[in-house]
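Our collaborator T.R. sent over the components below with a one-line note: 'Predict the complex.' Nothing else. No constraints on interfaces, no templates requested, no preferences about which chain binds where. So this is a plain run: every listed entity goes in together, and whatever single assembly comes back becomes the starting point for the next discussion.
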Amino acid sequence: MNMNSINGHQEMDFFSEDKKSNKGMRNQELDLKTTPWLSIKKEDLTMSTGFQLMSIKMSDHSTVDNEDRSHELEAMQAELGRMDEENKRLRVLLSQVTNNYNTLQAHLLAVMQQRDQSGHEVVQRQFIDLGPTVNTAVADTDEPSHSSTAGGSQEISTSPSNNIEVGSLGTEEKEKLSSNKNNEQASQEATMRKARVSVRARSEAPMITDGCQWRKYGQKMAKGNPCPRAYYRCTMATGCPVRKQVQRCADDRSILITTYEGTHNHPLPPAATAMASTTSAAASMLLSGSMSSTDGLMNANFLARTILPSTSSMATISASAPFPTVTLDLTHSSSSNQLQLNRSPATAPSSLPNIFGQPVVHNQSKFTGLQMSPETHRPSTLTDTVSAATAAITADPNFSAALAAAITSILGGSHPTTNATSS
DNA sequence: CGCATTTGACCCGCGC
DNA sequence: GCGCGGGTCAAATGCG
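Returned assembly:
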């Protein structure tokens, strides 16, 4: 969690975006009070106050005299004072929540390390720091024994139809059911392994430093891109299935595209933990196709509203072939960012489905949407983490911690349902 | 000499 | 069945 950008400038866009929507100024104020972890700058509040005062002036234009102006001035000062107090109060609240979060995170890391040392729960422990809906269905195909081990935390959560009493069936039916179950698991595992997290960032370095150790095992010329694509695998532990691809963007070679796939089977340094969690969360998220299209749209709106405040990042969720991919675009510097959510042709507006400005072939049969627990509250904004990551990128290619925090916020960060359902 | 990287061969899935 | 493209393997090579 990087809170360095709490007082950054991206927050302003959150307000301007809400002004564009059907939410009025009053609702924004309510949001500020009910979501104290949002970072609020004094300038923002001053601007808001100024807007109201301007309205007062205009409405009273016909009857203005010296006395009225004096009253207006007093009212302005009183309003400014109130806003200043409110600002201070919110800052204190934000500080408290931030401290609580950091304390909890440190405690969580300590607990995870203890569990690692005791020799249990090694493989999937990194999912703990994600929301409860994304830490249930996790397995890795490179180690099939994990997914089939009963009682393990990594056991795939099955649909109700899988809870049939096998004992009441005949042998043939048992085999059939078992076969179906295995096929289903295999399919899920395949999808899991293929789910990816892609990060686009401007960097002159040949590869971003993300806290893990990688060994290059291949390089290929990809079609339509003059720049070669490099393949790396994690070498922090023998048999770690995590891989990543690094390639420069064909259109803009200053943009480095790093794609992660798989789940680490070993303890990770803090800088790499969030990134690892992210790839797993992406796999879980894209695997769990239980969400209805309405829910998906609502969550898409929610995600958009969460991401849009930033003036320097864009998140893309794509279930398109060949692999479902969550993309964090940290290359944009204008305010024209938009969330791009790729869906099936039947539901996708024609203006939506593009990835990185290139047309996408929509041949996916299912889009799983986002599953985020409304109960899980993150005490920081995505704006904070993404803007921090972007700032870190522009300053130094070694930005793993900030970047990982940004991605994790996208995938694991949750906000109250009230924010998610209003569009 | 050991390790990492390079690079051509090979495998596999997919579309025609 | 065939060709194409993405991904991986493994022998050759380079480097400290």
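Summary for T.R.: The two ends of chain A are 28 Å apart (CA to CA).
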